[in-house]
Amino acid sequence: MNVECLTLPLANRLAQEYQQGNASALQFFAYHPYEKKAYQERLEWLRGRTDYNRDQLAEGLYTFNKKIGTHQQALNQIELLRRPDTFVIIGGQQAGILTGPLYTIHKAVHLIQTAKRLSAELDVNVVPVFWIAGEDHDIDEIDHVYWLADRETRLHKERMNLTKKGRVSASSLPLDEEACEQFLTQFFHGHPETEETAAIRELLKSTASSSESVSEWFARLMAHLFGKHGLILVESSLPFVRELESPIFQNVIEQNEQVADLLLKAADRLTTAGYPLQLQIEEHQANLFLYEGKDRLLLERHGDRFVNRRASYSRAELSKLAKEHPERFSSNVVTRGLMQEHLFPSLAFIGGPGEIAYWAYYREVFELFGMRMPIVLPRMSITLMEGAQERLLEGFGLTVEDVLTRFGKWKEAWLEQQEPHPLQRQFAEARASIEATYRPLVEEVVRLDHGLRHLADKNTELLLAQVAFLEERLVRSLQQRDDVAYRRIARIEASLLPEGGLQERKLSFFPFANKYGLSLVDRLVEAPFAHDGTHQIFYV
Length: 540
Prior knowledge:
By secondary structure, the protein is an alpha/beta fold. The chain contains 22 helices and 15 strands. Strand 4 and strand 5 form a beta hairpin.
């Protein structure tokens, strides 16, 4: 068994209580995520719907997935979608450089494992679908990766130069050849050459050279890693997706006030239940974006008109535009779930803690459009534990749970037990000397001019602060130069708790692949993970 389960607290209280099955949180959702009967109920509800355009959906998915070079197994899964007894497990992520943080990989693994498990349990075809949110225009969130540097003692952030103008989205942002080459040069410069490096380099370069956009590069990498396991990829801006979404765009425009009202009421109920609000809900928000040229601009509703920073439309004009040119529209965080539910017969949506907190607003919005919110299944959270890190923990008598739940307190106690630095007495004497010599002078200054009291005291503080600063720099220098234990602690922290958070939120997949090979993905897919909300430790 190479997997260990831990129960970790979540920072988001709503997601925490939902995961625990607390009735206070469950009231905002349609199903309990861990009850088998919920999946039977959901399946029966889906069987009663006949409005899915399965053939057009399958044709569009097949064309896209074939283009990005996916495996035949994924194409076979797409063909299953034509059949009325095939259902979907869906989740997604932004199109991050080199697939972004590790939790993107973990979400794909969870989709694949859940689809396989439910296929067996429910005796139906369940296929995994990964929704690439390629239209997000927060490029600063996707243009970088992190890896470990300085003998794995600190986190290094490498940003790819993605030149953009205005509010262009990742799906329409060209992949600049020179910028990509410079970024990959820096990536490989920051990692040791291993037996796996040549294969990694070939994959990253070949997929980049075949991609026209940042989003397509992401899609090609995900297809290479997970296509063989049947993962279906869909990108939010694809023309066939827009065409299929057109009726929902029109409905959202026609019932825009009702959507806003339901969201405001949901916010009130969340507040009454004692949960902090995760979405800023405003009465005038239209919950849609509209493309003006290449810029994806937020729509707002003022009276019976819909406006963005460049144009204004009547409701009739906007509805007509949604019917004739749906490619100009884009969903926001609220309406994205409606689009997914309209396109796919979804048994469950897999989301992280933040997504769960968002979806707590949507139950009545789904019902407004004749839909029912799918099961919202908390995303599996994983830490990759390397042998080297295991040995470091053993050396300090630490467990993984110690690091992930109370490392700060442990580190503070450990530091207090260490020997003082060799000049500690001299620095203490210097501080005492300043106090003894300088303080009487300060009092004399104040006696002559009482108005100088604040300045004189501040001057004393600055002198003492300079001594403290020099002492701190000495301690840091000695730690880095001489103390192996400090470096080992830094390695533990950088690898397992980078910047005080979970590994999966900072580190990315390809540095691990450079050590353990691309087959690490296959090992994760086959690992015996528990899907019960616990945190999974995967021993690499």
